[in-house]
Amino acid sequence: MKPDTSSPRSAILGSGKIRRIIVKLGSGTLTDESLGLRERTIRSLAAQVARIRESRGIQVVVVTSGAIAAGRKKLGMVERPRTIALKQAAAAVGQTTLMRAYERAFEKRGIKVGQLLLTHEDFGNRERYLNAKNTLEALLSHGIVPIINENDTVATEEIRLGDNDHLAALVTQLIGADLLLLLTDSDGLYTRDPHRYPDARRIPLVVKVDEELVRSAGSIRGGSVGIGGMGSKLLAARLVSDWGTPVVIAGGLSGRSILDVLAGKDTGTLFLPRGTARARRRKLWIAHAMQSHGTITVDDGAKNVLMEGGKSLLPAGVVDVSGMFRKGDAVSICDRRGRVFARGITAWDSEQVERGKGRKSAEVRAILGEDIPAEMVHRDNLTILQGAR
């Protein structure tokens, strides 16, 4: 598979710098309303993965949707399940069908697969986060293709969120992948909904995902089977590209999308990585994987010090606190206008923050004791959010 050196994409995608990729397939790509699971798509995926492994030594992790849709077909459900119990039942039935299809397709190519079912808790808890990372690294080192899905059978919050695009973004960061490839039933991002407007044009390149682009994508449907839609893909693309990793949204039904993307061909939509250095993994984990348990509001002086000076959060700059949290929980940090600009791991609980807010260090020690940490949130445990500057 020789890269197309005439294309500017080859500098990023066709080069030897791509050693590890995440391929995410949505329900609209993997399932059909009438036919159920599209096993041909999975067979095509296996063939392409086998080829890029052999020709370029690229490691592949697959993030897959489709369990609920496959289970719905198997259970004879005419409509999409609406209750949590029915969604979990469909996921339980459909996940076995889904994995059998992956196993059959990859075994024909001499490749073994391994299943991981993850939830946000596996990213929000540092120990579980590292365990997931170590498991993935072990699978990849043994030549096994990990197949990752949300654990829809138990994760009610995940079912309410309803898309795997964010999960794919988190996995990209988790293992330091060089490319996130989002395969969908549309062959890229368009100027308007291509299902409704014949004059819609594909956007081949996006330098920056701004709020206007995200809002405009909200009107582009994500398929009748999937829930995520183009908007969630753009949010994932913004997250990952801001980390310094390229993202491509491409069609998942062509049978050649992965090969064409990695050959640098003009297919799909490429989101350029912003910046040359990737952020520290712990900082990314704090910003995007942990769930916030409360909010600390600071004055403008404290905000400037945190954003520009890289300092820790001290009680003197705090004006308000909301929510109930314990020491070690993640908290959001916002300004007086209610705009969240940072996230961190707090060294104080919410009651201590309430009692110590706005006070100097000597006052804090007199009220809360000598053992209270000087910093509410230490700079090593604080991340300024993307787009806040």
How many DSSP helices?
Answer: 15
CATH topology (fold) name of the largest domain: Carbamate kinase
The proportion of strand residues reads 15-25%
CATH superfamily of the largest domain: Acetylglutamate kinase-like
Can you tell me the overall shape?
globular
Describe this structure in words.
By secondary structure, the chain is an alpha/beta fold. Helices cover 39% and strands 18% of the residues. The protein has helices at residues 27-30, 39-56, 67-74, 84-107, 121-124, 126-141, 156-161, 165-174, 211-217, 229-242, 257-262, 281-289, 300-309, 350-356, 361-368, and strands spanning 20-25, 31-32, 36-37, 59-64, 113-118, 145-150, 179-184, 205-206, 247-251, 269-271, 292-298, 318-322, 330-334, 340-345, 382-384. The chain has an 8-stranded mixed sheet, sandwiched between helices. A 5-stranded mixed sheet has the order 12-11-13-14-15, with helices on both faces. β2 and β3 form a beta hairpin. The longest helix is centred in the first third of the chain and has 24 residues, at 84-107. It is globular and about 70 Å long.
Outline of this structure?
Helices cover 39% and strands 18% of the residues.
Layout of helices and strands:
Elements: E1 20-25, H1 27-30, E2 31-32, E3 36-37, H2 39-56, E4 59-64, H3 67-74, H4 84-107, E5 113-118, H5 121-124, H6 126-141, E6 145-150, H7 156-161, H8 165-174, E7 179-184, E8 205-206, H9 211-217, H10 229-242, E9 247-251, H11 257-262, E10 269-271, H12 281-289, E11 292-298, H13 300-309, E12 318-322, E13 330-334, E14 340-345, H14 350-356, H15 361-368, E15 382-384
Parallel strand pairs: 1-4, 1-7, 4-6, 5-6, 7-9, 8-10, 11-13
Antiparallel strand pairs: 2-3, 9-10, 11-12, 13-14, 14-15
Helix pairs in contact: 2-4, 3-4, 8-10, 9-10
